[in-house]
Amino acid sequence: MPKPKYVSFDLDEVIYFMKEGDFSFFDFDSDHGQGYAQVLTKEVGWLCIYNVPDKVIPAETVRRVLDVLEHWDECLKQAYDWLRFWDFKNEVWNSEKEWYKQWSHDGVEKEFEVMSVDFGEEGWTERTKRKYRLGPNPKNGSDYFSIDFHAGQYHLGFNLKFLCEDRRLVQIETYIIF
Q: CA quadruple 16, 10, 113, 86: dihedral positive or negative?
């Protein structure tokens, strides 16, 4: 029997199956160059792994994905620490105002919805409105992962890029949601 499309998995299930080397829950596609694997999760939205040739996820990529997923709460905290300073009225980062510092993570979580986490994706520059660099530029797509957030009532998206080696936030891109 074929598996149903777009079944949502718990993050713990994804981690368990990936550790066991079972990737049967991923949907594989080759529309994007080298191909990609994706699965819908309850906690991170779409988990997408790019540059997956022949429907095989390389061992180093699996290691990096597992490291990020096992530290997902830390990555989200770091993201929310930056997102809470976004000034929607002026469309800029505003860490100077004291009242932004009081905005709790609960408030930020209600405003910004996690849409996906992507590994090895090289693009999306055509949609970028503004780019803010916070650290070194990754050498290539396999060096970083990104978390995509939407702030729906404002029709804005935020793509936060982290280095895989230490899960450190290095770049934030804002874009308009069409």
A: negative
- Return phi, psi of residue 165, to 5°: -60, -35
Contacts (Cβ under 8 Å, ≥6 apart) of 20:
none
Using one digit for the tens of pLDDT, what is the confidence trace for 5-49?
567 899 999 999 999 999 999 999 876 567 899 999 998 999 999
Tell me how crowded residue 60 is: count the other CB atoms within 10 A of its CB. 10
Q: What is the pLDDT of residues 54-65, one digit of tens each?
A: 888 999 999 999
**32 compared with 171, residue with greater pLDDT:** 171
Residue 61's pLDDT is what? 92
Following DSSP, what letter does each residue of the chain receive, concatenated?
Answer: -PPPTT-EE-HHHHHHHHHTT--TTSEEE-SSTT-EEEEEETTTEEEEEE--GGG---HHHHHHHHHHHHTHHHHHHHHHHHHTTEETTTTEE--SSHHHHT--HHHHHHH-EEEEEEES----GGGEEEEEE-SPPPSSGGGEEEEEEEEGGGTEEEEEEEETTT--EEEEEEEE--
Structure tokens at 157: 């998206």
For the chain, give the mean pLDDT: 82
